[in-house]
Design goal:
Chains A, B: Belongs to the FPP/GGPP synthase family. Chains A, B: One of its GO terms (cellular component) is cytoplasm. Chains A, B: Keywords: Isoprene biosynthesis, Magnesium, Metal-binding, Transferase. Chains A, B: Pfam families: polyprenyl_synt. 2 copies of one chain form a homodimer. Chain A has a single domain, classed as Farnesyl Diphosphate Synthase. The first copy, chain A, is globular. By secondary structure, chain A is mostly helical. Chain A is built from 16 helices and 2 strands. In chain A, helix 4 runs antiparallel to helix 5, helix 9 packs antiparallel against helix 10 and helix 11 packs antiparallel against helix 15. Chain A starts with 5 loop residues before the first helix and ends with a helix. In chain A, strand 1 and strand 2 form a beta hairpin. Chains A and B meet through helix 3, helix 7, helix 8 and helix 9 of A and helix 3, helix 7, helix 8 and helix 9 of B.
Chain lengths: 297, 297
């Protein structure tokens, strides 16, 4: 059987997410938002990117609903996930954390708008994620807010960032796995779970989403680390080799390049296995899992 | 008729809120939270303060429910409000914004934990507010998340902060009112409205809460500005006269001291009027409105 063709799927889904994010710009910056704040929030939100989390959320909603029409809740969840992801990039780039000048090939938020506004644009993006997600009559929205907040919070993304900058970081695979399960994995797992919840899936589908999200989240991070070693700045849209230079703690540094690649491939196989009950032998979710490690940027 | 005695009410309600915040420490920092992050979040959350927003939320829930037993939703809403208020203080104190060394008589979060962790502790507090608020079976929780996010977001608290640091700030009363209705007023209005929603109040009560919250929010800010002119550092727990020194834009600077005090008194009268249908001629809400301008710290 021919493998599911991801490229047209990704292109159309990414375009759909871009359109949704732009259409939601009014809700993102409600009436009364100071124009400069609105500009700073939109700058980072609409700076491109792979839109992996919203695409996954929508793909899971479609898979459990067995329909290709979007439901309003899944769309809001997809946008909220990208708001949260974007806020985390804006704050991570700040001088007191990574002090990065480039993101997605463009100057970082604080380079354009200054540190005070970048801090507040990040705060605004995080907060408006919950406005978008919570506003609407559907009872499932409360549960989605809880999912998103738990994933983004102290035992999720924020906690993972703290582990990443901790002075007493342990140079072990166990620590690295814990770090990334929190820092990037939690939000990817949430994207999958939120898609199932928004699409009205059952508990078995929720478990599939959790397993898939965990595997893809780790595979994605390993691929990121590997790309940093093997790619050029042009492909990445940020300086290549920055991890090694900063003495950052990566999968290739702990496992070596080949073992890292092998681990990523095993995780992808696990993810494909997890979604077989939802989409059969091959489909967009399995293809997305492969994409997470095969991408070049 | 003797005025409602606020002091014992405030003392008992503040103590109740302290107890609730401490009891929620487990949920604030879910299993898996890095200990240092948990410590930084607790440091600012449990650093004292007037707990005005949670007390108002609970007082409104009690007023509309005509009962003194707390409901779980109102308690979670009260805690979530204080998380959000605390996060805003932690971020406002950061070097790139106000660069303050003292808060509530103690070193600010970044003075104790460093700037990276203070930034992330603020992010964590904001996010966990929604975990606490959204986790539970009651359908009203989704609506409460929307209220809180709108109040804290780009057209609310974050937007107000942006207006406050804007270079093209206008030295007019209209600008000052808009700024404070967003920066501090939005969250105080939300505290009142969330109390009504959590307590199961009707639309008339929601309108009362909105009018009351708007008036008390402004009165509170005017009193803050007046206190900065007239108080000592010891009473305030932070350097007095800091506003004037920093050339900050305040009600006394725009209106003069006496006119500022008069405006605050008129707002308190408006707030008392708004809650008369809920608690009769005098009660905790009217007393809280008076307290917002009569306090000395």
């Amino acid at each position: 059987m021919a493998a599911f063709e991801l490229e047209p799927f990704m292109r159309s889904h990414q375009a759909r997410v871009e359109e949704l994010l732009r259409a939601r710009a009014d809700r993102l910056v409600p009436a009364g938002t100071p124009p400069r704040l609105a500009e700073a929030m939109r700058y980072s939100l609409l700076a491109g990117g792979k839109r992996l989390r919203p695409v996954m959320c929508i793909a899971f909603a479609d898979a459990v609903a067995k329909a290709s029409t979007l439901n309003e809740v899944a769309v809001d969840a997809a946008c909220a996930l990208e708001y949260v992801h974007t806020y985390s990039l804006v704050h991570d780039d700040l001088p007191c954390l990574d002090n990065d000048d480039l993101r997605r090939g463009k100057p970082t938020n604080h380079k354009v708008y200054g540190e005070p506004l970048a801090l507040l644009a990040g705060d605004g993006l995080l907060t408006e994620a919950f406005t978008v997600l919570a506003s609407g009559p559907e009872p499932v929205r409360g549960m989605l807010c809880a999912e998103l907040a738990r994933a983004a919070g102290a035992a999720g993304m924020v906690g993972g960032q703290v582990l990443d900058i901790a002075k007493d970081r342990e140079a072990t695979l166990a620590y690295l796995l814990r770090l990334h399960r929190m820092k990037t994995g939690a939000l990817i797992r949430a994207a999958c779970r939120m898609g199932v919840l928004a699409g009205g899936g059952d508990l078995a589908a929720l478990v599939s989403a959790e397993t898939y999200g965990d595997a893809v989240g780790l595979a994605f991070q390993i691929a990121d680390d590997v790309l940093d070693v093997t790619s050029s700045a042009e492909q990445l849209g940020k300086p290549a080799g920055a991890d090694a230079e900063a003495g950052r703690f990566t999968f290739p540094a702990v496992l070596g390049l080949e073992a890292s690649r092998r681990m990523a491939r095993e995780l992808v196989a696990k993810a494909e296995e997890a979604v077989r009950p939802l989409e059969g032998d091959d489909g967009p979710l399995a293809a997305l899992a492969r994409y997470s490690v095969e991408r070049t940027s």
